[in-house]
Amino acid sequence: MMHPHTELRFINESIGYGVFATKLIPKGTITWILDDLDQAFDESYIASLDAVRRERLIKYSYRDDRGLYILCWDIARYVNHSFHSSCIATPYKFELAARDIYPGDELTDDYGYFNLDKPFYCFPERGSARTTVMPDDILHYYPEWDHKAAEAMLSFNCVEQPLKHLIDHKFIAKVTAIARGEAKMDSILACYYDRAAALKAVS
Fold it and tell me: What DSSP assignment string belongs to 62-99?
């Protein structure tokens, strides 16, 4: 579920739609969290679909650490990519504002978090040498993303958290300890879907 202070806006014909803040969303705020209205599909279901629906589902979903395709039920599916993303993923099935997101600012993710099935070619961005998101980007950029998430987490208890009640019960104790400075945050590597290991397990 997306943070309530967001809305869908049309950007242009090249990009399409995006998600924008309607009020200040401070650094450390949960901007999105997986909830029980989101849908999960395995590869066999995806393969059973006709080409049109399969293409749409893959376009608007991401893959979790188990390889399931997760389709968000709300405007979260329209969050665009940026190499300088305003949101950062965590291993706890939620994302945080990586910086203060002001009214009118777009909420963005680095699609490298999402275990893409194939390379995603992007518009060039000032300040980044990257132009393509690769399926294994987590393996290369996790130190940077871990630091970004840990920095955001420092503000977790200092800001309003309207989505906090949706944190999965199995993560509550750990997230609480991290927010209090009593535990270290786990790496985003926990979000990686290892295709080779998955294939080996079923062979």
Answer: EE-TTS-EEE-SSGGGGPEE-TT-SEEE-TTSEEEESS
CATH architecture of the domain 6-202 equals: Beta Complex (2.170)
Q: Which residues have C-beta within 8 Å of that of residue 183, sequence separation ≥ 6?
A: 174, 177
Cβ neighbourhood burial of 189 (10 Å; 0-12, 13-18, 19+): middle
Do the beta carbons of residue 98 and residue 152 sit within 8 Å? yes
The structure's pTM equals 0.95
Q: Which of 138, 115, 125, 134 is nearest to 188 (CA)?
A: 138
Task: Report the pLDDT averaged over residues 106-110.
Answer: 99
Please identify which residue in the block is written with the tokens 């397990």: 201
* 5-33: average pLDDT: 98
Q: How many CB atoms lie within 10 A of CB 7?
A: 12
CB atoms within 10 A of CB 9: 14
In the 8-state DSSP scheme, what is residue 112? G
Confidence of residue 103 (pLDDT cuts 50, 70, 90): very high
| Res. 199 pLDDT band, cuts 50 70 90 | confident
Q: How confident is the model at residue 119 (pLDDT cuts 50, 70, 90)?
A: very high
- Spatial CB neighbours of 63, under 8 Å, sequence gap ≥ 6: 69, 70, 114, 115, 116, 117, 193
Q: For residue 7, list its beta bridge partners.
A: 20
